[in-house]
Structure formats: structure tokens, C-alpha cells
Amino acid sequence: MARLGDPKGKTDTLGGGWHKRLGHLSQNKIRKLVKEGHITGVRIQGNEDLEDCTPCAGGKQTDTRHEKMSERTPEKPGEIVSADVVGPIRPLGAKNQKYILVMMDHYTGWISAKPMTCKSTEELIDHAEEMAAF
Q1: What is the distance of C-alpha 134 from the center of its chain?
Q2: What 3-state class would DSSP assign to 133?
Q3: Residues of the chain with CATH 3.30.420.10
Q4: Per residue in 18-67, pLDDT tens?
Q5: Which one of 30, 54, 83, 117 is separated from 107 by 20 to 30 angstroms, measured CA to CA?
């Protein structure tokens, strides 16, 4: 059991305080915890709707598909290749690498990742050539 009494002794509405203090717990769950005696010192007034809670609304949003950037479809391997550098990462790699170069061939779907010690055009080109050799 937890005691969550308000130090100032004031009564809060669900949306105005307890909903946020309890990690954005739903109104029904807060009422259930109080009713079952799992938490004491919580005084709730009103029957407030929590639809105006911005963090809760954001958490309920879903991702939508992105529009295609290009209508062009590759006709052979290596024609369209994407690359991205991730990092710096911790802990460092075995040879003090702190970046990862990720490349993807859009024709084959082949994805390759290579650890790098620094961001450099030379390493990117070397990795692209290695990838093309496959």
C-alpha cells in the first residue's frame, strides 16, 4: 500500500493532478486503486474527462506510411543505394569504433552495416565498393 497524500491537504481533480502524478494512469484505474485501498491519502473530486491530456493523446497516435520519395524503381543491383551513419555510440567497438555505416541496396534489399572509427568520405566509399563486390 502506498500513501500519496497531498502535502498541502488540498483536493485535486483527476486531470489536474493525480492522473499526471500517477504516470498518466486512467481515471478508472485510479478510482479502482483508491476504492480497493491500494493507495491512501488520495482525495478525488469531480468526474473529469481526460481527453485534454496532451501526452496521453500523443501516446495514442499511430505512425502513417510515408509517401514514396521517388517513383523510380531500380532495374539492377547498385543502381539506388541509401546510406546512413549512426553514432556516436557507447560503448565503443573493439577497435574504438564509435560510428556505424549502414547501407541498403534498393533493388536487392541487401543491408550492410560496418563499424567506423570516424565519419569519413573515404570509409563510405570503401564500404560502398565492398558492398558492390557482392
Answers
A1: 33
A2: helix
A3: 81-133
A4: 777 777 777 778 778 778 887 776 666 666 566 677 777 777 776 667 66
A5: 117
Tell whether the model's pLDDT for residue 1 goes beyond 50: no
Q: Considering only the top CATH level, what class is 81-133?
A: alpha beta
pTM over 0.85: no
Which three cell numbers, joined as nine digits, stand for 93?
Answer: 567497438
DSSP label of 110: -
How deeply is 87 buried, as exposed, middle or buried, from its count of CB atoms within 10 A (0-12, 13-18, 19+)?
Answer: middle
**What pLDDT, on the 0 to 100 scale, is given for residue 2?**
47
SS3 call for 128: helix
DSSP annotation of 6 reads -
Amino acid type, 89:
I
